[in-house]
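User: Please predict the structure of the protein below. I'd like the answer in structure-token form so I can feed it into my own downstream comparison script.

Assistant: Understood. Taking the following sequence of 204 residues as input:
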Amino acid sequence: MMKRIGIMGGSFDPVHNGHLEMAEIAYKKLNLDAVWFMPTAKPGSYKKRKLDASNKERLEMVRLAISEYDEFVLSLEEYKRRGTIYTADTLQILTKKYSDTEWYFILGGDSLMQITTWKTPEIIFELSNIVAFTRADVDYPKALLLSENLKETYNAKVTVLDDKIPDVSSTQIREMIKNKEDILGLLPKSVYEYIINNGIYGKL
């Protein structure tokens, strides 16, 4: 019987409650066996921003964030690889290593809008099921229309979920710290304390 594993990939700079909510909803609604949180050491070229936290710090923040969830797993598949990391390459590696697993790639509606600009998107669609969450800037009808186009063009397997998730982003959290605003309710307490104690994004 094939395992059903979700993938939450990204820079997680920092990981926040929105990431955890998306993973939990996908886990429950799609009857997944687990969700792998997969921090990348060097994102693909579509993300040109320099990372604020170090690789070690980002990894530790993810480890802290998921420590209370039995269904979440920290995966080092991308973290250990050298060079620029692309989703298509990761999925090819995973498919070869775990032939008994069906992959569910979890992302936000904004990433769904950009996914055809990623490296070899046809491989991403071939080797994984896309699970997209709507956001304020990408509503359900818009995401659903795009998913239908992807199904027609790439024979993609796309599920669009309209569940309410915390309206927060890593960029927003970094800016709030820079402006000395309170971020406690936007991420797990353990991650908050780690950020504050280590002054990762500046002092609050």
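That's the full token string. The chain has a mean pLDDT of 93.
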